[in-house]
Amino acid sequence: MNDFILNGQAHGSIASILMSNGFDSRTLRPYIGDDGRHYITQNVNGKDQAVLCGNATATLRKDEWKTLDQAVIAAAKPRLKAVADLRSSGLTYSVPNAMGKTILETETQSDINDADVSMDGLRQGANDRPLYELTSLPLPIIHKDFSFSARQIATSRNGGSPLDTTMAALAGRKVAETIEKMLIGTYGTYAYGGGTIYGYTNYTNRLTKVITSPDASGWTPATLVTELLAMKQQLKNVYHYGPYRVYFGSGWDQYLGEDYKAGTDKSLMKRLEEISDITSLSTLDYLSGTGYLFDIIMVQQTSDVIREVIGMDITTMQWETQGGLMQNFKVMAIMVPQIRCDQNLNCGLLHAGPV
Predict the structure, then answer these.
(1) Per-residue model confidence (pLDDT) at position 179
(2) What is the CATH number of the domain that holds 226?
(3) Which of 48, 81, 106, 199 has the smallest C-beta neighbourhood within 10 Å, fewest atoms?
(4) Structural domain boundaries, residue 288
């Protein structure tokens, strides 16, 4: 049986629960309290509170939910390197009630003329104003399912051992990997509602540059330094002055740790870190394989270039089927990248790679 919402009407018990609770996913995270009654967490007057559950039957205790959540998050965190960089830089945009929205609408803005210079300020300047253009970004749900039978849960409790969270961890890892690949661009594009989700390596208005492969004849560490400086200048030529993060394809690992020059203890990575306006350099696990192994991404770390749109952080929801004999779980998130350029198509993102 499929649950869905069509033309503002809920069809199915799960869809009905979500719609009647403002699409708050926590309504599908009921737990058994210490008093044996069933609760959900809801926002009441701006504060999260435990509320008696009247529309879903809880199966897991609060500590069991914690065990599942810890397994999911622990598996997801290592896979979110590029996404974590955006979050640590404050380059995020939160969408409230994202379960009830399918697209995010934003605007691009044109520039205006330069300021005038005169001795008395009486010269009539150009009275212009910026132009705006509406753009849309899809807000899909990234999700992966797993399940426990009621007997597995009962056996865990009677035996005093925790639930086997292997499947929960795997589901969390798969969701995180897809989120990371969407940002990098190796997932591909996703189109809906007139908008398209792009990543670093497939954004249509990104800058590009051909660089020398480290396994090519005549390549030296100094070659990479020169080409990285040229990449920085290419971004400055389109009015993006940093700061920048630089990401390398996984094939660069064996070269970045080598000595920059013979007779010195300075590695190539240490030399690159001396380049001004670059805040970090790192390799990405999912910038690999055919066509990406020796690629380099340089991206300006400002919100007018890149931000991670977060409608729902990685979370787990639960519902029952088969008369309660099967407890189904879904690890899900609404997290998508938004790469931006101005109306002149100037973008602070550069994607380089060998021919």
Answers:
(1) 95
(2) 3.30.2320.10
(3) 48
(4) 201-306+342-353
